């Protein structure tokens, strides 16, 4: 899709990575209400998927974070025609040595995805499995934004010692419908 | 059969015990896999994979994935099909062989010890052994046309 500017990313990194994202906390609010309206308070929602059928020592864990200061990212990367279809937007954090095993999203259809931190080979890619191929979205092309189909099987394994951060804007319409909106004209 | 097929033949309990003993015997010699591609991402995977000749069936080999190691999703280049027998550990401690096909996952596990599977190695598959145990299985690589084999 489009590139977020280096300046914007540097600003974000300074505020939220160098200074550090707050330690994840559990929130009592159920997810839908937390998503329905962005509050000005920083919030975090932690997901620990149910134990897989087979025994495994690697933890399934991801957490979602929102703060009003993040809004500038969507201002930069969210096309106007998609604003009415936004279900949620947040920073997704995968802590070191955890994974999200291969799955297809149940609730979410598609998302705009911006890998943030770390960069280059330290950012563990999101892996999609389609047509007997493995397709990786990594962070070698820093600032690149991607439109992702969440109905395709995908997984993440953060086997590094670094937290893994990305920005996600989730939509309630299917990937194919978003593609029909001819985003290229709006983004470039 | 697309990913795998559970065949009628089975390994007997005695044979399974013998195989497990050989796998766990500290004197068993193992050699490393060749041509395993390592991933370009930092700390991504330990692709360690070890083989040993099976003393009871000379056309087969034992395969070991040490604990904490994995074979990330891949398709085999050197073979199309094999007969595959999960050996150790059993039940839910055996990390399954996972296939990624047609936007679905399917697993060969060890919930039925002694079962034998015909496996298509050209379908993307993986194994992640994040358990407390080394993981062992028996593999017999099939040479020739699968149609001839299925006709037997």
Under CATH, the topology of chain A is which?
Answer: Jelly Rolls
Q: How many E strands of chain A? A: 11
Backbone shape of chain B: globular
Q: Pairing-aware structural class of the strands and helices of chain B?
A: mainly beta
Instruction: Tell me the span between the first and last alpha carbons of chain A.
Output: 8 Å
Helical residue percent band of chain A: 10-25%
Low-confidence stretches of chain A: 17-41
Give the oligomer, counting copies of the same chain as homo and different chains as hetero: heterodimer
Structural class of chain A: alpha+beta
Question: Can you walk through the features of this model?
Answer:
The complex is a heterodimer of chains A (188) and B (152). With 188 residues, chain A is an alpha+beta fold. Helices cover 20% and strands 33% of the residues of chain A. Chain A has one domain: Jelly Rolls (Sandwich). Chain A is built from five helices and eleven strands. In chain A, strand 7 and strand 8 form a beta hairpin. Chain A is globular and about 45 Å long. The relative contact order of chain A is 0.22. Chain B has one domain (4-25, 49-151): Jelly Rolls (Sandwich). In chain B, the strands form two sheets. Chain B has a seven-stranded antiparallel beta sheet. Chain B has helices at residues 13-24, 146-151, and strands at 4-10, 31-32, 50-53, 61-65, 69-74, 81-88, 97-101, 104-108, 115-120, 125-129, 135-142. Chain B is built from two helices and eleven strands. Chain B has 152 residues and is mainly β. The A-B interface holds A 53-58, 102, 104, 121-125, 127, 129-130, 132-134, 138, 151-153, 157, 159-161 and B 40-45, 73-75, 92-96, 98, 100-101, 103-105, 107, 109, 122-124, 128, 130-132.
């Amino acid at each position: 899709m489009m590139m977020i500017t280096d300046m914007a990313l540097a600003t974000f990194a300074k505020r939220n990575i160098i200074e550090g994202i707050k330690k994840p906390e559990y929130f009592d609010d159920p997810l839908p209400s937390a998503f329905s309206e962005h509050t000005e308070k920083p919030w975090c929602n932690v997901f620990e998927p149910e134990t897989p059928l087979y025994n495994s020592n690697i933890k399934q864990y991801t957490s979602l974070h929102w703060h009003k200061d993040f809004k500038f990212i969507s201002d930069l990367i969210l096309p106007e025609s998609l604003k009415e279809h936004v279900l949620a937007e947040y920073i997704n954090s995968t802590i070191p040595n955890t994974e999200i095993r291969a799955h297809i999203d149940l609730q979410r259809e598609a998302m705009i995805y911006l890998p943030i931190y770390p960069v280059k080979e330290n950012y563990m890619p999101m892996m999609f499995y389609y047509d007997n191929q493995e397709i990786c979205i990594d962070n070698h092309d820093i600032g690149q934004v991607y439109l992702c189909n969440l109905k395709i099987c995908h997984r993440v394994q953060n086997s590094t010692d670094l937290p893994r951060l990305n920005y996600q804007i989730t939509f309630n319409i299917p990937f194919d419908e978003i593609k029909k909106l001819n985003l290229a004209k709006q983004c470039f | 059969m697309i990913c795998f097929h559970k065949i009628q033949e089975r390994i007997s309990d005695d044979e399974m015990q013998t195989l497990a003993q050989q796998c766990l015997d500290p004197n068993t010699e193992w050699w490393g896999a060749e041509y395993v591609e390592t991933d370009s991402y930092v700390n991504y995977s330990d692709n360690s994979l070890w083989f040993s000749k099976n003393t009871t069936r000379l056309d087969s080999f034992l395969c070991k994935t040490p604990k904490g190691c994995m074979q990330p999703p891949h398709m085999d280049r050197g073979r199309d099909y094999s007969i595959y027998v999960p050996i150790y550990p059993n039940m839910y401690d055996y990390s399954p062989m996972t296939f990624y096909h047609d936007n679905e996952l399917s697993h060969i596990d060890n919930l039925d010890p002694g079962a034998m599977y015909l496996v298509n190695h050209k379908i993307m598959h993986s194994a992640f052994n994040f358990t407390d145990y080394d993981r062992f299985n028996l593999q017999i690589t099939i040479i020739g046309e699968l149609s001839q084999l299925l006709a037997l």
